[in-house]
């Protein structure tokens, strides 16, 4: 009986400590020394080349800040890394151009980015003919 009580007491202490630690993290995130609420953020600028780690500058009245950011190296340069789109499936292959097309509708614009509502992308048609019978094995010879 005492072991159960001791276990329950330890569990309560652990829960209380975890809740307090989470509270401190939230307070630190809010406490950045700025009372300004209307921040304007620029694009993420990579430290080198055109992708990877970088920084984003923000201004609000007479204050300015820099935040760390990251541009994935497979991002669509045409749209910008701060514009997130929901894309449809690829359309059929055009025999005239040798390209297939799909469109994307704006899902989210991060950091007040200026994004197009709808974008179109193309890619070359695949020269390989895909087999519909994936996962099937040829019959075994005896």
Automatic annotation (TrEMBL):
Gene3D superfamilies in the cross-refs: Heparin-binding Growth Factor, Midkine, Chain A- C-terminal Domain, Pleiotrophin/Midkine, N-terminal domain
GO cellular component: extracellular region
Main localization of the protein described in the UniProt heading: secreted
Protein name, UniProt field: Midkine
GO biological-process terms attached to the record: positive regulation of cell division
Keywords for the protein's UniProt record, in alphabetical order: Developmental protein, Disulfide bond, Growth factor, Heparin-binding, Mitogen, Secreted, Signal
Cell compartments where the protein resides: Secreted
Biological role: Secreted protein that functions as cytokine and growth factor and mediates its signal through cell-surface proteoglycan and non-proteoglycan receptors. Regulates many processes like inflammatory response, cell proliferation, cell adhesion, cell growth, cell survival, tissue regeneration, cell differentiation and cell migration.
Family (UniProt): Belongs to the pleiotrophin family.
UniProt signal peptide: 1-21
Residue intervals of the Pleiotrophin/Midkine C-terminal domain: 80-135
A GO term, aspect molecular function: growth factor activity
Listed SMART domains: PTN
Every Pleiotrophin/Midkine N-terminal domain range: 23-79
């Amino acid at each position: 009986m005492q072991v159960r009580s001791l276990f329950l007491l330890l569990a309560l202490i652990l829960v209380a400590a975890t809740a307090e630690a989470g509270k401190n993290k939230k307070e630190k995130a809010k406490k950045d020394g700025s009372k300004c609420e209307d921040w304007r953020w620029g694009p993420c600028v990579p430290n080198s080349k055109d992708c990877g780690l970088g920084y984003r500058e923000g201004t609000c009245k007479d204050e300015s800040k820099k935040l760390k950011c990251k541009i994935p190296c497979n991002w669509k340069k045409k749209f910008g890394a701060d514009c997130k789109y929901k894309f449809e499936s690829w359309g059929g292959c055009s025999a005239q151009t040798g390209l297939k097309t799909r469109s994307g509708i704006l899902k989210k614009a991060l950091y007040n980015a200026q994004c197009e509502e709808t974008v179109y992308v193309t890619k070359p048609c695949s020269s390989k003919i895909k087999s519909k019978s994936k996962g099937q094995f040829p019959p075994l010879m005896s």
